[in-house]
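debug: dumping io for the single-chain case to check the tokenizer round-trip. Nothing else runs in this session.
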Amino acid sequence: MSDGSLLALSLAEARDGLVGKSFSARELALAYNDAIARAEPLNAYITPTPDRALAMADAADRRLARGEGLPLDGIPIAVKDLYCTKGVLTTAASHILDGFRPPYESTVTEKLWQAGAVMLGKTNLDEFAMGSSNMTSYYGPVENPWRRPGDNRPLVPGGSSGGSAAAVAARAALAATGTDTGGSIRQPASFCGIVGLKPSYGRCSRWGVVAFASSLDHPGPMTRTVRDAAIMLRTMAGHDPKDSTSAPLPVPDFEAALTGDVRGLRVGIPKEYRHDGMRVEIEAAWHDAGQWLREAGAEVVEITLPLTKHALPTYYIIAPAEASSNLARYDGVRFGLRVEADGLEDMYELTRAAGFGAEVRRRVLIGTYVLSAGYYEAYYLKAQRVRALIAREFAEAFKNVDCILTPIAPSAAFGIGEQSDDPVEMYLNDVFTVPASLAGVPAISVPVGLLEGLPIGVQIIGRAFDEETVLRVAGVLESVAQFQCLPSFLAGDRA
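debug: decoded output
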């Protein structure tokens, strides 16, 4: 098969082709190594690992030849550079982790390699996953492979998992890992026209994932199709004794949940998700998605989630508070960047000032403030109480509906630099994704159409640890929407 034909395959198709010996894992890895080189202008990767990819592909070919193939044997995967990878530079897109090569592997990536997946490299992100645009990376912004028709100005891919999203959309990875703290898988998936799944909190281990906000960080897959997301999640998920928040639950066969049948399911439409400033095209796509599910046999009903309006301020108290605690470990003493000084305290201050970017410093300062004496109860404890109420509100809603359908973001992808001067405006990109993060429930982004030539998605939110229903509904939406558009970056490669 030609490189173009190989790159056009979904993960499920590539898996079947490898098992059927239509092509080798090495051929697939070579095609993706070449694709990564061609996609270099997008800055989606911080550290490609082409030699490692070929070595892992050769090992997969040997197992397949012996008839001992593993579930993901030979599948080329990109890894968000927030996951620790043994012996491979891991930066969290921050200057402060210069030169850090972990002596251990994150649980999620270890599961992927044990299943036979092939590592293509480490993808770019917002520094320490703090951002909605992928413009805060020390290694420079990632460009979305999409452009507005007739306008070649670069667009953001969304954040923080923008490098993973751009790589998958540009066919420079077959699938990728992402992390979602307040929408960092779902929003970039929508901006780049791919599928992004935030599992339930505790479904995938956080061990070995550089922490942003420990009670909110969700590892998850980013793929081209819903089926691919189901395949990835089955390998990534599972209880991990090394992570005290990991759920000791069996891992279902998520792919088997894609029955294509939503008859009898009740789908909730929350009226509070009609946001001021949301584009009418996005509301129309949301309405159309509800109508498609109704025509497929689901019952679509309006619900109310009145605490939604408090989710964003609650998130932007809790997440920076946890970040300020987690990032205290980066001091220049044990690993990463060190700026020498006459005294220890000066070394701390100079290292952190040089190592952290503006957005990270902003969130550390906010977090330290809300945890400080005199403000801890007024801000942090109150935010935690509101968070508990939001989670309870979702639980009550799920007594009457099986899933909830909402928009992902108030707009399609915006231009690089367009919102960078207004942090509050940037934070508003998370208005539709943050509630599910606070509640710890699963949510998926599925592309359903275009807004002025740019992809937009809708979000399906489900009960805690009911990814099967979320995937089933997403699969039906995907089959009706038939989103087959390719980004302009691939305009010359429509194989």
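debug: round-trip ok. The chain has a mean pLDDT of 95.
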